[in-house]
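user: Please supply your own:

assistant:
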Amino acid sequence: MNDATSPNSGLSEILAPGLSVVFCRLNPALSAVRDGHNFSNPSNRFWRVLHLAGFTPRLLRAEEERALLHYGCGLTSAVSRPTKSASELKRQDYLSAAPVLEKKIQTFAPANLAFLGKAAYAAISLRADVEWGRQAEEFTGAVIWLLPNPSGLNRAFSLVGLTEHYRELRSTL
């Protein structure tokens, strides 16, 4: 297991070799850094969606984030710099952070890498138009998935809609 922290955020990354899937958020929220746990804001739907989609047998709390490893899942960030909103990140932030993400994925070799939101993958792949779901290409050997961001600020997806997208990935594991 890895207890590494993201260089600029202080949050632990939840990584281990050979996981089924690593969920890659755009970047840490300021509230998560303050609380010391990933996806700790009560409005964030990450933990609920993981449970409803079948990744975890029960609803985990942010304080139980390390339990994800027992279910073959991990967490990392495309960009380690925390912000109030991911909209504060620019394309160059993702491009500058891409080599660090590539190294992590090469090192831990998950079967799947699920970007939570389109922004990071669109910037890294240099593609303006990307669709949700499984992508045709791989990222350093990992199958790429684009899943909607579970942030409470993402009003484009209901809890049911989010769960359907995450369940599609879960059904392939």
The chain has one domain: 21-170. Helices lie at 30-35, 46-53, 91-108, 119-125, 159-170. The chain has a mean pLDDT of 89.
